[in-house]
Amino acid sequence: MKFVLNFTASASAILKKLKYSRDSIKKYKAVIKTLQFLQDNPKHPSLQSHKYHSIKGSEGQEVFEVYAEQDTPAAYRIFFYYGSQKGQITVFAITSHP
């Protein structure tokens, strides 16, 4: 089952910023590839998907983190929760790991 990805305004803004920044082409491609895997199978092994316990979704949903990059300084992560409707995922953060 293919999931529908919804993006918050802040996640969309980060994605757009990555897309149009000359310095972030590699990061943008990694994020897009990760989003494709997420859409096809949120439990794909390469995503290393796991619950993120310190925050909740907008309506108290469990939040998950997936890896867009690994073993690089400030590697990008994507945070999401499952939507209220079956087959929906809301991406609310695309950010670099501290």
Structural descriptors:
98 residues, alpha+beta, YaeB-like fold, 5-stranded mixed sheet, 2 helices, 5 strands, 29% helix, globular
CATH A-level architecture? 2-Layer Sandwich
Q: Please state the average pLDDT score.
A: 91
State the domain count: 1
- Amount of helix: 25-40%
Individual helix count: 2
Unreliable stretches covering 5 or more consecutive residues: none
Whole-angstrom Rg: 13 Å
Largest sheet: 5 strands, mixed
Write the CATH homologous superfamily. RelE-like
Give the ordered list of helices and strands. Answer: EHHEEEE
CATH class: Alpha Beta
The beta-strand count equals: 5
Strands of the biggest beta sheet: in what spatial order? 1-5-4-3-2
Share in β-strands: 25-35%
Structural class: alpha+beta
- CATH overall fold name: YaeB-like fold
Quick one: overall form?
globular
Termini distance?
Answer: 33 Å
